[in-house]
Amino acid sequence: MISKLIIFRVLFLSITLLPGLSLLAQKTDSLIGAEYVDKSLYKTREVLPDVYGVPEANLEKNLVQVKGNLYRHTNGTLPALHSGLVLITKEGAIVIDPALTQAAIWLNDEIKKRFNVPVKYVILTHGHYDHAGGSQIFQQAGAKVIVQKNGLEAIIGEKLPVAVPDIVYEKQLTIKLGSETVILNHIAPSHSNNMSVVTFPDYKAMQLTDIGESNTMPYNDFLDFYYDGWIETLDWALKQDVSYIDVGHYTPATLENIKDLREYMIDLHAQVLSLVRQGQSWDQLYRNVKFSNKVKKWGGFDSMSKLNIAGMYRWVTNHRRGVW
């Protein structure tokens, strides 16, 4: 009778305790808001050559501590051609934007060597090649690649030689891994229609790739951009309790830098719109846009200022309609 009672208790504990342990494991590694991609649909997809996949012995690569378990990876010079945040936990690492295949190979090995954990998740802030490149290296090693839902179409449609994402989300995705929390938010179409702003609440840190700048000009003629959503995203970012902002290139930014960028973009839009409404053509208009002395000192001003005007001119002319 006693032996039967012992067996019963053991079975009872096996049934009740083990599910509890399983639940505990799920809590240390969970995704809230995730949708899983059927990658079998894209097995035969066509991809373009990976021009960043060629080894470059002179490419500078670094992984530097920001605070606690939060690090920043960089490659190249300028002082950083590309950058992204890396969170190390006891359950694995989370990497944002590997950027280049050759840099991703180094970063994957560096994380294993220094911290003895695998990369669990790779977050792509958006589906542009210069930031999503190298994601396939981590995926092949077992990591799950995440992008905002619209980024899947961009990666497939543009035949990018990067990982087909494993996970997508609509507006917000929360990752809980090894007692750490990372939150992805898609505020609005901005630098592209699939941007993720990533926050690390415990570190008061934010990844604001290509949407934010640190005393540097926005790139080129704004390329794949949405003015209204960009301002909306900057407004959201300025309300966050953060003290460290990585912008994907160059040097980290402050909230004051983000405020300056917002003022610049609103002023540029207002000037271009006003000049167009006055009837000025492009040949007249670009000579009449004025820049503040502060902006004139920003990195890349000489090469990017006229390109920025061109991009805003394109946006303005495509988003106005008078008497017809």
Describe the protein's architecture and organization.
This protein has an eight-stranded mixed sheet with strand order 2-9-8-7-6-5-4-3. The protein has a six-stranded mixed sheet with strand order 1-10-11-12-13-14. The protein has a single domain, classed as Ribonuclease Z/Hydroxyacylglutathione hydrolase-like (Metallo-beta-lactamase, Chain A), CATH 3.60.15. It starts with a helix and ends in a 6-residue tail after the last helix. It has ten helices and 14 strands. The protein is of the alpha/beta class and 324 residues long.
What are the SSEs and their pairings?
Layout: H1 2-28, E1 29-32, E2 35-36, E3 61-67, E4 70-75, E5 82-89, E6 92-96, H2 101-115, E7 119-123, H3 129-132, H4 135-140, E8 144-148, H5 149-157, E9 167-169, E10 172-177, E11 180-185, E12 197-200, E13 205-207, H6 227-238, E14 244-246, H7 255-277, H8 282-288, H9 293-296, H10 301-318
Parallel strand pairs: 6-7, 7-8, 8-9, 13-14
Antiparallel strand pairs: 1-10, 2-9, 3-4, 4-5, 5-6, 10-11, 11-12, 12-13
Helix pairs in contact: 6-7, 7-10
Strand content: 15-25%
Any idea of the CATH topology?
Answer: Metallo-beta-lactamase, Chain A
Count of helical regions: 10
Order of strands across the biggest sheet? Answer: 2-9-8-7-6-5-4-3
Helix content: 25-40%
| Rg, Cα atoms, Å | 23 Å
N-to-C series of helices and strands: HEEEEEEHEHHEHEEEEEHEHHHH
Low-confidence stretches: 1-27
Number of strands: 14
